[in-house]
Amino acid sequence: MLYLVSTPIGNLGDISQRALEILRQVNYVVSEDTRHTGILLKHYDIHKPQISFREENERKVLPRLIRLLQEGKSLALVTDAGTPGISDPGYVLVRAAIAAGIPLTAIPGPTALIPALILSGLPVHSFTFRGFPPRKPGARRRFLEVDRESPHTLIFYESPYRLREFLADALEVYGDRPAAIANDLTKMFETIYRGSLAELRARFESEPLRGEYVVVIAGKGYTGATDSALSEEAD
Prior knowledge:
alpha/beta; Cobalt-precorrin-4 Transmethylase, domain 1; Methyltransferase, Cobalt-precorrin-4 Transmethylase, Domain 2; 5-stranded parallel sheet; disordered C terminus
């Protein structure tokens, strides 16, 4: 059996009781970073062998994981933070397990995109999650262009190394829309920055950058009206 186990995105107290039970009962924990996962396991006094499974080695390790599952072993797949497969390793293992007829299930829990969305103050009734943009400027702008006409709230992940460049490109592609940026979600210094893309870009020119960021951008045509007002306008 393959378990896709969601783990905390910051605060270790956010893990579910069911997730802990699964981690205690499986034969192996399949981890994006064994050192990072080791901190979580040690915190909850869980002692299980780990198998490293990350983007750099997933194709090499995949056959071993499928073999273990076919032998009847149980595996819990975790990432460094959040839900496996959401901008993290996991997709190829899920696909391979399905193809091999191996049973699998998900243990729901934390993921950064939903807290960022509901804290942004932007419409939540319809949204598009886009994950991490490409690193190169030209590819990133083409990536953003896909949703230029979309009316849905847009959600992106970005690293501190490219946040400024991302904001500059987003402003160029989308214009000066309302937006929000979440940083250190669930941690002691959790911060939500709200404003227009131009205001946020100017702020982060001097703001110290650390940790990963979730950027939430209003869809085309959003004027700041409430969801109920939008519904009335649609009628």
